[in-house]
Structures are given as structure tokens and as C-alpha cells.
Input
Amino acid sequence: MLHTFENVRVGLMVGIGGGTPSSKNDLRLGDVVTVQDREFHIRGHFDQPPVAIRTAVNALKGELMLQPGLLEQEVEGRLYPDIEGTFGRPGVHLDNLYRSKVVHVNGQPHPNLHPDSFVQRQSRSNPRRPAIHYGLVASANQLMKDALIRDKLRIYLTKEFVIPRNHIGKDFSDFETHIANNALAKLKVSQGACFDTYDGQNEPECLENTRVDILHRINTWAGDFDDQRMFWLSGLAGTEKSTISRTIAKRFDSLKLLGASCFFKRGESDRSNGSAFFGTIARQLVTHRSELKPYLLQAIKDQDDIFHKNLREQFDKLILVPLENAYKGSGSVLSSIIVVDALDECDNKGDVKLLIPMLHELAEISFCRIKVFITSRPDTAVHFARRPNLGSYREFILHEVSKDIIDHDIGVFLDYELSNIREDWNAEHEATLDADWPGAERLQTLIQKATPPFIFAATACRFIQDSLLGSPETQLMRIIEHQSANGGTTINDKLKETYLPVLEGLLIKRRKSEQAVILARFSEIVGTIILLERPLSTQALGAMLAVDPDVITSFLAPLRFIINTRRGMHQPLKLFHASFRDFLLSARAEVFRIDRVACHRRLSLASLKLLHSEEPLWENCCDLTPGTELGEIPTQLINDRLPSQVQYACLHWVGHLTQAQYALRADDHVHQFLQVHFLHWIEALAILGSATKSIGFANVLLSLKMTDDPGSLRDLIQDIKSFLTSQILPFEAFPRQAYFSALLFAPSGSVVRKTFKKWIPKFITMQPAVGSNWTSQLHSFRIAEKTSTYL
Output
């Protein structure tokens, strides 16, 4: 219309004002709804409305506040008494708002409806005067007849579900999709744990004509849901359990049988414990089985902190209850398989002990046909699974497979990989390898050296392929000619034959003084990599250790077939196989052995030094307002202000301190850090969504040994625990409240309050009356008209 009538400068289309009523927005026929502030939409942008509109709105506000006399209206009413009856506001008795459950047959309401069928409305002091509502105007391009949709829309426009304002004009189904995605985004999931993630796209699968027997057994079990519901595949390190898991997960997915997969991985915090296990499974289940989505969304809505609850409660609310609501008595049957790989790499053995019975329970539910496939090392199966009260399951032990089958499979793998190496080398070099290289005899030698661990074969192929160290022929001979010092045949002996030749290459033709420097650097860099709770990039590792990233890259170059460094300086450094970590922590690593305690101590102190420096932590690091909620902070902003090494240090310095068997003392690194940066630290934890972990950190610090009469340090940590347990609710949701309500409502005698009182905002001139000491009441908060108290 603005384009058609050029003299019309501002256009506003209006509709029925009762679109989204609520207890706070009681719109009635005749009311006026207008837009203000930054909510006037101009071609889909969020610019301020024109000056004319803002001036007019302010004039309307002012006129309403002045309450002008009604003489003119009274005179008109006397002169034209019939006009109001024809054109005036309808009577209140005609302006009824029906509840959404009321059904209008043939468009007409039932004549004898119960009063409960109507929305109760308070009377207005002047029924002739329209109310003016300022704020957001939600518009659509179609008539809204469905009251249920109207009520849903009203809910979506509340703060509970924040949506981009430019979505308002879209189809209503977009709202439901957007809200569902927002809610599902709250699920705590293990990044990279699914079989088909980006990080796992280059991980190997079983080659054709290998693992024939075990794959046949698994596929037969999977196709018969009357068979035992759980399959446990156990095997020693290097028997390629994860390769089998990826292979069968991909096949199950192609057959629409895969419900979810979770690949545990030691050294990656999200994947080395069970805290996000059920969130990871639930998120995939609703992706594969959409009928579960409304019940999972309801579980999240009913208890939005479910991800902080114990594993049993997470299992019930996120898995069991949605499955029961969706399928029990519905007539439809869910047939699905869940793949859980490397359960032994869940470092928290308490989590493993809890997870296994729940997985048994999941496999045994009667209203669904769910099967569970698990892999682990043998000790996990023996210790946790083989208990009479856990029911029966099918088991296959990989390391008991006959030697002939293992030799055949390794031979197929080596022949495939070495053929590719030969072709790549010949395509790029004049000095080519023979067409039958490496030859049957040397291939057989490699097969014998590789048995039993498959990781020998994979590591050897990466070593042979690395042209920076020499030609494939040279590298092959180095492996074949290396003799194990003791000629052993145990799994540890084979690991030594796999890794030690590579490591010894670092020391070849070096003087003793140079070897000492290399070994110290090895302990610092490689020792840190294998003991990190989650992988860091070369850039982040350099910042953590105060080592030039280029130095790290150069040092790791000869080890790039053991540590994956080929993804660039900004991608996480990862081990190709966890057995390298096991080897370096054992005596068989000889001079390359990593001192676990010393390395954890170095990591904890490096983290504290990083956080205690000038740049990483400061008040309001993300430029938030006091009312900014956690969910409103852009992820990119968090990553910019709190880079990965700072995030790591915030989350893990306490854990490394514990494993270093550190003894606290007054005025040490821990004491100095807490005295200066405690509030900055918990603000950062809140921004990272980990505020609740701070209480556990305080408990851990209190459990550490303290020396040299650390009275002031003990008092500070004890007060920190009281401060966190009583004040965590505000700043968990609103990170900046660590400096506002958390400090303001702490007792006057609190060590934390006295230490950080300078951070209380100056504009708060009247502070609340508080007691002098902490009481047994940990927290009191108000919900609606009820007051609840934590004791």
C-alpha cells in the first residue's frame, strides 16, 4: 500500500487485539495495541522506528497519564444519546474470552456453558476508556481461529522460549520447530561421541573379507529380537573393537535399526565419563524416532536442570518415561539397537557401575524391542557385567579368536595399506618400488610381529608412509630389524615393539646433553597431551605451557603417526590409539616413561599461572548486563573472550591438583589465585554452563592435605563452599549476579564478601540487611506465592 499511495508516509495494518491474551495482557475489544521501542519492524530489520512514530507513541502515553477531562465526550453523549448504543464499546458481558478447550459447534458457542469455560477477567475502573498496551505486536498473514494455537503462540512469546522476533510473520509450524530445537539444544551431549560425527569420519571400518565371523554373529543377533537383548564384545587393547563398532553402527543405520551410538574415549572430558551419556542417547533417539520428541520436550520443560541430576534420574526422565509414554499401549512397536563402544574408557568407574544395570533394564523393557551392543576391555566385562543379578547376555571375546583368523585379517589389512603406500610413492618419485613390494616374506614377518594387537599394523603403516622420515623401504626395514629387548610375547611387549622404535628415533645421533633436553621436552609436551582431560589444539597447548606453538609442531613432527597433528594448529591434538598413553605410563617406556604425578602437578600450576595472568579472567569478560541470562550469550562471544585454553584451565585445574597429590599451604599459588580471581573464576564457570561444578571443586580443595598452618586458606575455602551452596542459583542463570546479589546477600562476616566487597556495584547505595554469619539455611527463593528453602 505504501508503494501504491505515495503520499502515505507511514502505514500500519491492524487486526483483532485479542490474539494472545494472558493474565498480564488482558486485551479486550476496543483496546488499543501499539508498538514502541525497538519492536517496529521495517523490512524485517530491527532498527528504531521513525521519529514520527516514536513521537506519536510518547504523545499518547503523555495524554493518557494526564487524564484529560471528559467534558467533550459528556456533551456529545447528551446531544447524541443514540450514538453510543450503536457505535460504542460492547458491554462487558458480550466481550467474552472462551478457554481454548471450548468447542464451538457450527461456529456457535453452547448456550449453557459453565462459568469455568470462560477466562476470568477483573473489572476495569472505567469500562468506557480503552486500555493502551505498549510493546511487541505479533502479526501474521492469516486469520487465527484455533484457540489452542493461540495459546501456544502466547507461550512461545514469553521469556521462557525466546525466539528471534523476525520469525513472527512466518508459518506457525516454524515456531514449533524453532522451540523444539531450542529445547533439544539444552540436552547435554558428548561432542564427537556418535559414530558418524565429523571427528570420526576418517576412523577406519572393517575391510571387506575381514572380521567375517564376528560380523556375521553380530548381524544374526541384531536381526533376531527374540534373541538375547544384549551383546557384549570384549577384547584386549588393539583388537579393533571400535573398528567393529563403527562398522556395525553404520550397517544398523542403513537398515533403520540404529537408535543411538556413544563412543567413549579416554582423555576427552565429554566422552570419558557418564555425565552426558543419557543426553547423548536421548538426542539421537528423537532424531531417529520422531514420535519420542514431544515426550522428551516435556521432560526438559518439567525439569530443565535434569542434566545436573544423578544418572538414575536422567535415565528415567530422558529415556524410560518418554519410551513408555510413546509406545506402551500404543500398538506400535519400537525395534532399535543402541551401540556403546569402549565402555572401559569411561574413567569414572562409579558411572560404569551405574550404567550397566540401566542398560540391562533398557534392553529388558517389554513395551519396546531395544537391543544394546557394548564393547570394552575384558576387565570391565569381568568386574561389572558378569553378575547374577544383571541377567543374561551374549558375549564374544575377541582375543580368543584363533591365530589363523587374526593372521588372515591382519594380512588383508597390511596388503591393502602397503599397496596404497606403494602406489602413492611411485606416483610422486622417480625411484619407484617394485610392483610386488614389500614381498610375501616381509609381509609375513610384519604379520607375525603384529599379532595380537592390530594397532601395531596401523601404527607401522603410518610410520612407513611418512616420507619425511625416509622412503617406505627404509622405514619398513627399521621396523623389521628392530629387536625387542626381552623378546617377550605379552601385550605390553608388543606395545613396546610398536612404539619404542619410533621414540628412539628422537635420540639417534644425539649427545647425552641433547638427549636430556629432548626427554625433558618430551615429558612436558607429550606428557601433557596424554594426561589432558580433553584434547587441546597446538595453539591452545602452547598458551597453556607458555611454549611457542611452532616449537610444539616441530617437536611432534616425528611422532605424527602416533599423535594426529595433520589437522592444523587450531584443531585438537589426539592420539591415534589410547594404548600409547598406557605404554608411556608404564615402565616398558624406559627413558620415555611419563611421571604421572609430576605431569599433573605441572598441568595444575600451568593452569593457575595462566588464569592468574593479566588477560584471561576479568570482571564481566563478556560485556553482559546484570540481567543477561546464560542462554542469551552467543557461543562465539564466549569462545572469543574465553579461548579454549582458558576454558580448560577453569574447568580442570582442581582435578589436576588432586591427581598431583598436592598439599595446600597458606600464600601458595592456589591461595593467591582465589584471593584475586575467585569471583572472576566462578563468573567464567557460569558462562561456560558449569556453575554447579564449583561446589564440587570447593569440596575437593577442602579434602586436600594442608601444611604449614594454613588457617587463612582453610577459612577462605570453607567460606567459598558456604558462599557457593547458598548463592549459586542467581549466578548460575545470570552470570553477572556473582558480583551483585551473590555478594550482597552474603553475611557481613563472610570471608568472600570482605575479600571482594570492592566488586559490589557503586550504584547500589542501600544494601540489604544480612546476618553476620552463615546459617544452616543454604538458600531461600520465591516461586509464585510460595517460599521454598534449601536446608
